[in-house]
Structure formats: structure tokens, C-alpha cells
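Working notes for the structural subgroup meeting. M.R. asked for a predicted model of this chain before we commit to crystallization trials. I am recording the input and output together here so anyone reviewing the notebook later can reproduce the run.

Input as submitted:
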Amino acid sequence: MVQGKLIERVEPNSIAEELAIECGDYVVAINGEELTDILDWQLAESSEQLFLTILHQNGELVEYDIEKDYDESLGIIFASPTLDKLRVCQNKCIFCFVDQMPPNLRDTLYMKDDDYRLSFLTGSYISLTNLKEEDLQRIMRLHLSPLYVSVHATDPKLRSQLMNNRRAGELLNILKRLTQAGIQFHTQVVLCPGLNDGSALDQTIADLFALYPAVQTMAVVPVGLTGHRAGLYPLAASDKLLAQQVLTQINKWQEYCWAEQQTRFVFAADEFYSMAEIIPPAAETYEGFQQLENGVGVVRLLLDSWNNLQPHLPSKLPKPITATIATGVSAACYLKPIVERLQQIENLQLTLLPVPNKFFGGGVTVAGLLTYFDLINVADKIKGTLYLPSVMLKEGEELFLDGYTTGELAAAINTKVCVVKDLSSFLAALLGNKMR
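Returned structure, recorded in C-alpha cell form:
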């Protein structure tokens, strides 16, 4: 029986769509070879001429002779992100967020991936603790760079303790070996008060900076604690005093790294600035915002975008508009002055709604973890059209973490719901042509 890799969807206006390849078809082979995993596909797809064998849903087996540009995608999206079995995490980190998830969510939300292929392709963070020798050889042979590595601590004993994995202590040896092969890295530390902060953080920064420029950047993010930690390691949450100490420590290291290599190297997540009640530094200090997905520099981009857009605001709208913008508690302090300025526009009634996260509970304050449940809880405070930042939803879909859609939310609260990507798109949607 002919087998292949299931196609989940085909991108519009792509080569695959032109060839009438559809969702539900199977890729049997490319250039006469069966696919082992997503890396095989990526390498083969980059060819300027290739042969693609497709098993259509009607049972017809067709081979396509395709000529294209080397960087042109065929537009085929597979049902499995890796095309084979996902490499799962073998650690039992004492701060693991997945272990703190409430029950009865989508199965995929409980999946602990730790796959070097996805780290290279999508920028997901991995621990390097589940790599076999053949994995290391493949990374070096294919030059899979950069990789994104969750470090947490470079002290072998401490890292093993944090991750409950003896192999975790081998990190520096693996990094040095891959560094010699020309592989680069972006790294992160989840800071757990009383464990890997203070002098332990100093050691981690020093050890990783010694590998610069192979290790390009390091982000420090606060540990996320939900209200679902029964039976888990007793971790303390970060507070204002700790945030101030961490920022002072990072600032000193940035000065040192700049003097040595003209890079600041280590960066604090925006949450530390929010907790410390400090405005994040200027855009140039983020050196290209390479750790943006870690919440490093998002606030600075917001503030700079506002400074550019503010002079173009209208003084009056042609007709009355009532709207509410929902956000997480931690971002409210930065959005408050923006909303106060917008409220000065005649005919605009705008409400800023910081939404407490009751679904996850604990100290979760970021917008990206708010749910349908949380928004329903504040429905009585929503006035007019409800605007939501896209980070609240599954990428590419208007689906909340608790499984509900924006359409279901709109029906439940009987109002229009609009999803916006950033401040610019919010103002364009709110004010129309006035901000285009």
C-alpha cells in the first residue's frame, strides 16, 4: 500500500494550488525519495527542479515535474510539523509551565516538545538534553543554525537540579562542540528566585558570553506561576525588589559586554520593567530585537510606534464610536497614557480593560494567556466593539487557549470582536482612514 505524508492545507496562489494538489492528498516522494522528516522536505523543496509524487484522494498517483526559484515554496503545509514522531521533552523542570496548566484543554497544549528541528525551523526553545550522537552529527552536517536553547543555568549541578535530568549538566560541553562546527545560538534563562538568580545568574551570563559570538544573545525572563501548582516544587514569584535587582545586574553586564565585544548580549524581558515600574530602554539597546518572541522589547516597540503615530491623530471623528481594548494586567500601565490621549478625540469613547487572569490564576498577568473564560468574567465592563491583541489567540486562527473562538465570544457578549496585530492596526481599525 502506498503511504505518504498527509497534506493539511495548501497555500493560496501557490505552485501546489496551481497543480490542483489539495488538503487530504499525500506526498509520497520528492525526487524519488520518501520523506524521513521535515528537514528532508525543506532541503528537497529548495531545489530549482524537482519531481513530486502525490497520492490524490481519489487514489490517483501522479508525479509532477516542477521548475521554480530555489527560494520559492511549493505551498504545501503538512498535518505533522516534523513529518515523523515529535521529539518530546525528557526533563521534569521544576518551573515547567505545562505542568501548571488547568485540565481539559486541547491535547496539543500539554505536549512538551524538545525538537532540534523545530528549534531551527521555527525558533522554539530546546534543552539539548535529548540529543543522540547522530542528532549532533546531523546538526553539524546540515549546519542547522541558529538554534534556540533554554539554558536556565550553566552550573552543571544547578541545571540538573532545575531540570531534574542528569544530562542537563552536559550543556556547556555540547554548546562548545557545536560552536566549533560553526553553529550559533540564542539562549534564555527562566529566572527562579532563590535558585538561579544572583551569583548563579552571574555565572550563567559569564559562561555564555565566553562563547560569543557563537552564543549571540541571552534573554532573562521571570518564572511564570499559575494557580495550578498543587504538589509541585514550591517556587517564589518575582516581585518589584527582585525585578529592580535583576535589571541592575543585567545593566552592569551589558556595560561589560559592550566594552568587550560591542554587544549588550543579555536582555531582560519586559515583565521585569513592568514589575520594577521602569520604562524600558531605547530601541537601539535591543540590538535588532532578536529576542522579541521572548517578550524582550515588545513594550519599546509599542511606545516608539505610539510616538510616531500620535501626531497624526484626528481631533474629531465624523460620528460617535464606542470601543473597549482588552489587555493583560502587566501591559495596562503602558497602554493607559495612550488610551487617555485617544479619549481626547471628540466622538470617541474608548475604555481600557485590564483583564485579571482567573483561568490560570496565580501570578499570570500577560495578555497572551488570557482566555474566553477571563473575558466573559468582565463582560459587564465591555462597551462597544471589543478589540483584542492577536497574541491572545492561536496563530493563524481566532481560537482562545480554552478552546472557544472569537465568534463564540462575540455571540456570548453580544458585541463585535475585532482582533488586531499591533498598535498601528488597532488605530487603523478604530479610526478608519484617519490613520491609514
